[in-house]
Specification:
nine-stranded mixed sheet, 9 strands, about 350 residues, 2-enoyl-CoA Hydratase, Chain A, domain 1, alpha/beta
């Protein structure tokens, strides 16, 4: 047993060193590729019709007989062959009814709306390939964030509207504050019954260390050119004038926010919905913040009956180094998680009374 233990410890040390060396080497290679312009970005396109069909067929393999499955596979192959052979039709020409297409874009927003960089590329791709009659489903999940970031993201949705595409925003979980501003630009908003929607308001919050510094006899000099260059500060003494100016600026942003929502949803009672409060989907429907209670899955299932549905995703390939580093980080985190769980189980087994 002592030999096995020592061998296992040696093996673990060797594997750790080898993994560290591989990560360093891969990271160096990745940095070299980035310097040479080797970092790649690409657009991934997935035809959801086929993906959903495979999902259904997986279940049917367990439910149907071999003869029934064979007939289904033949029908699928024939339908796909006919679709591929069918020449591209120009829907702008009369007498050529084309099968509609739906482009699915996903936006998972953080505080900085950092996914806007990918969204703008996806929107550009759609605008270059779309035909009249095509539609866009924007699956939104965002609690909001910085004003300029979400303002720019909403402008990307506006590009789709300006091009004449029918845009539907789907909120399965949350579209609040800046997230709702993006949704409001769409022609139609659907939401799950318990999705969080709304929060048409603006907030600013910063800590102030002036009193703490004053007790330690630390002075902070703030020199500005411009009466309102700084309103509230982190380290200086905030004045009533500065607070009033900050409140005025927030009010101006709030009015701009309401103007965007009112432009696209003029029937809303802004006095009621622009208080900064958020609502669940069912209540949001009554107020007119959304148009229907429906999940994005239900919407897509219905759309695939008569449309070709494509999911688009723009992403950066940061190279082997980043992928390997990410794998090591995920593996380490999982190992820690398993270790904590194992320790908890041991503690519970020794401390909790047994059931007899």
């Amino acid at each position: 047993m002592e030999f096995v233990w020592q061998y296992g410890l040696f093996f673990a040390k060797t594997a750790t060193v080898l993994a560290a060396v591989l990560v360093v080497m891969a990271r160096i290679a990745s940095l070299v590729m980035q310097r040479r312009g080797g970092e790649r970005a690409q657009l991934q396109v997935v035809r959801l019709n086929r993906q959903y069909q495979r999902l259904v067929r997986t279940l049917q393999r367990q439910l149907l007989s071999d003869k029934q499955l064979q007939a289904l596979h033949k029908a699928d192959a024939a339908a796909e062959k006919a679709r591929r052979k069918e020449p591209a039709k120009d829907p702008t020409k009369k007498g050529e009814p084309a099968r509609h297409r739906v482009f699915v874009l996903d936006f998972k927003g953080d505080m900085r709306a950092s996914q806007t960089a990918a969204l703008r590329m996806e929107v550009s791709a759609v605008l270059g390939a779309a035909h009249p009659g095509d539609a866009v489903l924007l699956r939104l999940e965002s609690p909001g964030g910085v004003v300029h970031g979400y303002g720019f993201a909403a402008a990307q949705v506006e590009r789709l509207r300006d091009a004449g595409l029918q845009v539907t925003a789907a909120v399965d979980q949350v579209a609040a504050s800046g997230g709702y501003m993006m949704a409001a630009v769409a022609h139609h908003i659907i939401a799950a019954p318990f999705a969080v929607v709304g929060s048409i308001g603006v907030v600013a919050q910063i800590p102030n260390f002036y009193k703490w510094l004053q007790r330690r006899e630390v002075d902070v000099e703030l020199v500005t050119a411009g009466r309102h260059k700084r309103t509230l500060t982190l380290f200086g003494e905030n004045t009533p004038e500065g607070r009033a100016q900050m409140q005025q600026e927030l009010q101006e942003v709030h009015e701009l926010f309401q103007a965007v929502v009112t432009k696209h949803r003029p029937k809303l009672d802004m006095a009621e919905v622009a208080s900064g409060r958020a609502w669940y989907g069912a209540s949001a429907l009554k107020l007119g913040l959304v148009d229907a209670l429906e999940t994005s899955d239900a919407w897509l299932a219905r759309a695939m009956a008569d449309s070709d549905v494509y999911a688009l995703r723009w992403h950066h390939d940061h190279g082997l180094g980043s992928r390997l580093s990410g794998w090591v980080a995920r593996t380490a985190a999982r190992a820690v998680e398993l270790g904590v769980e194992k320790a908890w189980r041991r503690t519970a087994a020794t401390q909790l009374p047994e059931h007899r």
